[in-house]
Amino acid sequence: MDVTVVLCTYNRCDSLAKALESVAASKMPVSVSWNVLVVDNNSKDNTRQVVEQFSSRFPGRFQYAFEPHPGKSHALNYAIRESNSQILAFMDDDVQVEPDWLFNLTGALDNPSFSGAGGRIFPERGFIQPAWLAASESYSLAPLAMFDLGATACELKEPPFGTNMAFRREVFARYGDFRLDLGPQPGSEIRSEDTEFGLRVLRGGERLWYEPSAVVYHAVPRHRVTKAYFVKWWYGKGRGDVREFGAETGNSVGLFGVPLVLLRRIAVWSARWLFSFSLARRFNCKAKVWWLAGEIHESFAVSRTAARVRISERQSAP
Predict the structure, then answer these.
(1) How many CB atoms lie within 10 A of CB 230?
(2) Positive or negative, the Cα torsion across 283, 288, 292, 298?
(3) 48 and 136: one domain?
(4) What is the rounded average pLDDT of the residues 32-44?
(5) In this predicted structure, what is the pLDDT of residue 315?
(6) How far apart are CA 77 and CA 68, in angstroms?
(7) Same domain, 139 and 284
């Protein structure tokens, strides 16, 4: 088996060096050929020099590539085209991996019935969860890219997160690339490029494995542990959900392209936000409001785009 670790990066040369140092310490069997492909997504800092230093220290282990088109999905898709390995594992430039991370994550794919795998993503050591976050709420730490389904290995029924996942190469041939309208890029922090792909694979009938012993630690910059960052993330998540799944209409009609069911939900969650007394409960309701606001924004935008297309088609009709 041969493995390529894909790491896409943009202007984070300091954290990148720490990420590469951690993956360089990976303990893999001599029978496994593996390398790390770093895709520089048009960085303006010392990213290239950092990667070249690792290439000199570990000959044949690290490879530098440059993708000038901005946007993480562009960088990910470039890596898929450039690598030839049987297995592609993914990590980010702001994580540190355990020495056995790569072995444990890709080892699950020794079983030919599984097409991909995902592992646990913990916050960096010493992280203290703020009181305004509900510890019991599912995915309360999703804006910090945390993923933890417990300590028991099992089959995944949901897509893994992008900084700790691996897929067989043929999966991309069958299901395509990462979507270019999703994923962070200049002017947009809409994400979900990773989970959309994983969900596409699951819906295709493929099986994925959850390996809790494959652990990465994700950096938590101070500016992210703020209410402002969380609500902005949830707003982007709502927009991304509409792009990924379409507007949720239910049985209701729409108002300017916005399903009435979304308007009712945002009214309900706004009232809960206003009248909740628990700090964590109150913020949880606020996050739901911003999530729904993102869905409403994107539903309206999609409707406007569709209307312009229809007008253009009528005008160009003979």
Answers:
(1) 23
(2) positive
(3) yes
(4) 97
(5) 66
(6) 13
(7) no
pLDDT classification of 318: cutoffs 50, 70, 90:
low
pLDDT at 285 over 90: yes
- The b/e string for 94-118 (b: 16+ C-beta within 10 A; e otherwise) is bbbbbebbbbbbbbbbeeeebbbbb
Residues 234 and 166: their CA atoms lie apart, in Å, by: 26
Count how many domains the chain has. Answer: 2
**What is the rounded CA–CA span in Å between residue 233 and residue 228?**
9
Distance between CA 199 and CA 149 in Å, rounded? 17
* CA dihedral of 194, 198, 199, 200, whole degrees rounded to 10: 100
Max distance between CA atoms of the chain, in angstroms, equals 67
Residues 6+ apart with CB under 8 A from 205: none
Say yes or no: 215 and 267 in one domain: no
Buried b (16+ CB within 10 A) or exposed e, 189-216: ebbbbbbbbbebbbeeebebbbbbbbbb
pLDDT range class, residue 137, cuts 50, 70, 90: confident
Beta bridge partners of 215: 120
Which residue in the block uniquely carries the two structure tokens 């960088």? 75
Domain's final residue, options 206, 224, 242: 224
Query: Out of 28-32, 69-73, 185-189, 309-313, which region has the weakest mean confidence (pLDDT)?
Result: 309-313
- Compute CA distances 270 → 235, 250, 261, 299, whole Å: 14, 21, 14, 19
Domain that holds residue 295: 227-316
Asked whether residue 135 carries a pLDDT value surpassing 90, the answer given is no
Q: How many CA atoms lie within 13 A of 28 on its CB side?
A: 22
- Type of residue found at 66: F
Residues 114 and 92 placed together within one structural domain of the fold? yes
Q: Please report which confidence band the pLDDT of residue 308 belongs to, taking 50, 70 and 90 as the band edges.
A: confident
Tell me what the mean pLDDT of segment 21-49 comes to: 97
- pLDDT at residue 94 tops 90: yes
Within its chain, how far is the Cα of 123 from the centroid? 15
